[in-house]
UniProtKB/TrEMBL annotation:
PANTHER family: ARCHAEAL-TYPE GLUTAMATE SYNTHASE [NADPH]
Matching Pfam families: Glu_synthase (PF01645)
Protein name (Swiss-Prot/TrEMBL): FMN-binding glutamate synthase family protein
Entry EC no(s): 1.4.-.-
SUPFAM superfamilies per UniProt: FMN-linked oxidoreductases
Family (UniProt): Belongs to the glutamate synthase family.
Keywords, ordered alphabetically: Oxidoreductase
Species for this entry: Streptacidiphilus jeojiensis
Domain Glutamate synthase, residue spans: 139-455
GO molecular function: oxidoreductase activity
Length: 510
């Protein structure tokens, strides 16, 4: 009798917890997995102690270590994101580790390192050098990278788009087209992939009128032509028929329920020359800045692009260089592991190709590939990036637990799935504030680290300000490692003056 009563009380307690988990909106995991989801949070709480004795260190897990994820989670929740006691990095021995060299004295005014609202505009006007009608200076040098509705749920896209609006960043649609979930106030970079989803004819070819209709229907600020992405370069995307719901089919302009395979290459152009004609056509017809996104493999493409741009009559407004360490919804292992160059190597080669011809002030350089962590972002800026895009870090900010099931449609946090039961758990309103908080914190940390280097903006950090450990007890500057010549990675004098004036003008409101 006594045992039965205890059992009944326990069952009632579990029912109360389950009911509370199901209605609360803070944690998607608990909404989707009531009661048992608490085990994950309990393990996370005692994780450091457990791992110290039996499992892995805080630095070991991949793609993002526990320390990196903890920093993003804490930043997104506006909790204490500091670390206590000292670094866990074996500082003299971790090959490839970057060391930022602080300065004792600074030449000019420095940003307020503690203001989460401090602006971090792009150092360059997007589309300015080529005189595009709708050229503009992006208000945020940190933006949300391409991830399609289809690979991510509608709830996740909504959270990211609202987060972008709150943080004043741009949100890239990914190659799956512009969905209703992208229409929540955030500025849009419209991506066009080889499938031309949302702007295609029935046979899959590109349709300019449809593109113009899409552009006119939303706050599209720029167009990005996707040539490839770091995690699966040279390979078209594939959305299995089971995931091609009628909603996705309508947005993409494809039949529902059938596998949606993108070709590996574009049909609207076939070489660099015709690609530049296509870029100029889109820019002329829409007035928008137009750029390309690509992973870096053979360099002939970039050399030809830079050479043709040197003539001055045609050109891209930006290049987005994606590193092989970048993420994907789904990719064959060989492509994710072994095709295309990692970010630092790939980016520095591309930058150098334009720098050799004195063209670096003529376009905006954007980087992606685990750059949503301040130390990696600082390296990117030092190498010459003007802006960075973040994808998986933004997913972590809305609750991704790095379970790496994005390709299975079984994402436990409702982010990378179309399963209504799982997406129900993700509350876009509360998650959007987390994305915004994370993006603001990343910008703030970048300003902090710039201040430590004695400059007012990460665009002023140079390739001599950071060293890379290239063996035990030995480090070389980024300039030395990546073969940068004098002035490479830096803004030209006119752009530097403009940025300094812009930051000075923003000073009183900080
Ligand atoms: C779920 C998911 C979907 C993605 N979809 C696209 C896409 O549609 N187009 C694209 O160019 N890149 C896509 N990417 C790549 C990202 O935009 C980004 O370039 C890459 O993940 C590197 O950034 P990260 O390291 O911050 O994640 C996707 C990445 C993820 C994780
Ligand atoms: S499947 Fe795992 S790694 Fe992918 S989004 Fe969901 S929680 Fe994150």
């Amino acid at each position: 009798m006594h045992v039965r009563r205890i059992g009944a009380v326990a069952a009632a307690a579990v029912a109360v917890v389950a009911a509370r988990d199901l209605v609360q909106k803070r944690h998607a995991l608990l909404r989707n997995f009531p009661v048992i989801g608490h085990a994950r949070y309990a393990l996370e709480t005692i994780g450091p102690e457990l791992r110290q004795y039996i499992v892995t260190s805080n630095e070991e897990e991949r793609p993002f270590s526990r320390d990196q994820r903890s920093w993003i989670y804490a930043s997104a929740k506006e909790e204490n994101n500091y670390f206590g006691f000292g670094t866990e990095v074996d500082v003299e021995h971790v090959q490839g580790h970057a060391y930022i060299k602080q300065r004792t004295f600074a030449a000019g005014a420095l940003p307020d390192a503690h203001d989460p609202q401090a602006p971090l505009p792009s150092a360059k006007v997007l589309g300015g050098p080529r005189g595009r009608a709708k050229a503009f200076r992006p208000a945020s040098a940190v933006n949300i990278s391409a991830m399609s509705f289809g690979s991510l749920s509608g709830a996740a896209i909504t959270a990211l788009n609202k987060g972008a609006a709150l943080a004043g960043t741009m949100h890239n649609t990914g190659e799956g087209g512009l969905s209703p979930y992208h229409r929540n106030g955030g500025d849009i970079v419209l991506q066009i992939g080889t499938g031309y989803f949302g702007c295609r004819n029935e046979d899959g070819s590109f349709n300019l009128d449809r593109l113009k209709d899409v552009v006119a229907s939303a706050p599209v600020r720029a167009i990005e032509i996707k040539l490839s992405q770091g995690a699966k370069p040279g390979l078209g995307g594939m959305l299995p028929g089971a995931k091609v719901t009628s909603e996705i089919a309508a947005i993409r302009g494809i039949p529902a329920g059938k596998d949606c395979a993108s070709p590996s290459r574009h049909s609207a152009f076939g070489d660099v020359d015709s690609m530049l004609d296509f870029v100029e056509l889109l820019a002329a017809e829409t007035g928008l800045p137009v750029g390309v996104k690509s992973a870096v493999g053979e360099m002939g493409f970039w050399q030809e692009l830079a050479t043709l741009m040197e003539r001055g009559d045609r050109g891209v407004d930006f290049v987005t260089v994606d590193g092989s360490e970048g993420g994907t919804g789904a990719a064959p292992r060989i492509f994710a592991d072994s095709v295309s160059l990692p970010f630092r190597m790939g980016f520095s080669r591309v930058y150098g190709t334009f720098a050799e011809l004195g063209l670096t002030d003529q376009l905006t350089f954007i980087g992606s590939g685990k750059l949503g962590l301040p130390e990696n972002a600082a390296v990117a800026f030092a190498l010459g990036a003007d802006m960075i895009n973040v994808a998986r870090e933004a997913m972590l900010s809305i609750g991704c637990i790095q379970s790496q099931k994005c390709h299975t449609d079984k994402c436990p946090t409702g982010i990378a799935t179309q399963n209504p039961w799982l997406t129900r758990g993700l509350d876009p309103a509360s998650k959007s504030t987390r994305t915004a908080a994370y993006l603001r914190t990343l910008r703030k940390e970048l300003l902090k680290v710039s201040g430590a280097v004695g400059v007012a903006h990460p665009g002023f950090i140079t390739a001599d300000d950071i060293e890379i450990l290239n063996g035990d007890y030995e480090a070389r500057t980024l300039a030395g490692v990546y073969g940068y010549k004098d002035g490479w990675g830096e803004l030209g004098p006119q752009l530097a003056d403009e940025l300094t004036a812009l930051l000075a003008a923003a000073e009183p409101s900080r």
